């Protein structure tokens, strides 16, 4: 895997990124250490986490993932310089009062969250500091429509950038990124950065997979023209695109135990929609028709897309990690890609 540049920054990252949100919930610290060791051995140099992890989010595991990564770094002298470390400041609490008091994300909140992440990660600097979801009201996490009547913004984008600039100047972060953003948000962050000499967004972390290609409608053009990279998360649609739910008939109580969709909170999300599973089954069957596993098709689709700079893979075992990394060598034929597009044309984006 040849490293790729994130946006117009100086960050050079592997085109596969290790997502860590299962660490501290589905994955123990010992298992997480083994996964991180193996990922590094196999050429992955890019770690992504967030202050709100582990997931599903709850007060008892808030910050647990960063703590595990910090313990791993402390136990591996010299490794910190080998990896690009990304984390995120949570946007408005969205019903998670353990993240912070109040409903917004103020400048003081950004600073406090950054300092908390630095402590838990046991590092002096964060390479890529991302806003996990917009401070303003914006459609995300399965909400399809923008509603101006719901706007309750307290901190302007300009103020957010000024705060991030202070953190850069203090040497606490190196680059900034966004997550769960819209074309308006990306354009406004870039416009203000260029106008006022503030940190320029390097990347946007949004969902991208066979059952959620909403990125392909405006975000791809916006970010390509602006020089902002896509970090694709949920490339396997929370497991729907691995085939492991194909025979269960449901993502509810009968979902395989230990999987993400066995959690009631996840079942209520976009990935738990019946049409998401029904459409995923069609892609999984298409993979098998072409002699591939469902996982190989789903990951290769992201790995080979010009739109994606780095694909974030979340795993719960060494076997899953190896399977996901091995899929890097899979090539998709023009015929198969044409059939993928035909399914998307018919069923659109049920995981949006």
TrEMBL record:
Keywords: Oxidoreductase. Residues 15-343 form the NADP-dependent oxidoreductase domain. The keyword Acyltransferase does not apply. SUPFAM superfamilies: NAD(P)-linked oxidoreductase. InterPro entries: AKR, AKR_Detox_Biosynth, NAD(P)_OxRdtase_dom_sf, NADP_OxRdtase_dom. Signal peptide: none annotated. Pfam families: Aldo_ket_red. The keyword Oxidoreductase applies. Gene3D superfamilies: NADP-dependent oxidoreductase domain. Transmembrane segments: none annotated. This is Aldo/keto reductase. It comes from Comamonas avium.
């Amino acid at each position: 895997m040849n490293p790729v540049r994130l946006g117009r920054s100086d960050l050079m990252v592997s085109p596969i990124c290790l997502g860590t949100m299962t660490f501290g919930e589905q994955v123990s610290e010992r298992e997480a250490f083994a996964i991180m060791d193996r990922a590094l051995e196999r050429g992955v140099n890019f770690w992504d986490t967030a202050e709100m992890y582990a997931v599903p989010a709850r007060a008892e595991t808030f910050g647990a993932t960063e703590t595990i990564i910090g313990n791993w770094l402390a136990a591996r002298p010299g490794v910190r310089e080998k990896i690009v470390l990304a984390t995120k400041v949570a946007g408005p609490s969205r019903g998670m009062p353990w993240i912070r008091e109040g409903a917004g994300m103020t400048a003081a909140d950004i600073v406090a969250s950054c300092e908390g992440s630095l402590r838990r990660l046991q590092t002096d600097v964060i390479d890529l500091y991302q806003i996990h979801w917009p401070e303003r009201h914006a459609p995300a996490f399965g909400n399809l429509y923008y509603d101006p009547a719901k706007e309750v913004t307290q901190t302007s984008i300009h103020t957010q950038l000024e705060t991030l600039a202070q953190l850069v100047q203090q040497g606490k972060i190196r680059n900034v990124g966004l997550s769960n953003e819209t074309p308006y948000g990306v354009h406004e962050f870039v416009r203000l950065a260029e106008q006022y000499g503030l940190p320029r967004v390097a990347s946007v972390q949004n969902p991208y997979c066979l059952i959620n290609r909403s990125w392909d409608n405006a975000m791809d053009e916006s970010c390509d023209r602006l020089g902002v990279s896509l970090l694709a998360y949920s490339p396997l649609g929370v497991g729907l695109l691995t085939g492991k739910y194909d025979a269960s008939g449901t993502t509810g109580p009968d979902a395989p135990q230990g999987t993400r969709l066995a959690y009631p909170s996840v079942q209520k999300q976009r990935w738990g929609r019946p049409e998401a599973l029904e459409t995923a089954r069609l892609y999984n069957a298409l993979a098998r028709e072409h002699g591939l596993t469902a996982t190989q098709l789903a990951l290769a689709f992201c790995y080979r897309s010009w739109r994606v700079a780095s694909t974030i893979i979340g795993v719960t075992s060494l076997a899953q990690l190896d399977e996901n990394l091995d899929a890097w060598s899979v090539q998709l034929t023009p015929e198969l890609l044409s059939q993928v597009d035909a399914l998307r044309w018919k069923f659109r984006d049920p995981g949006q």
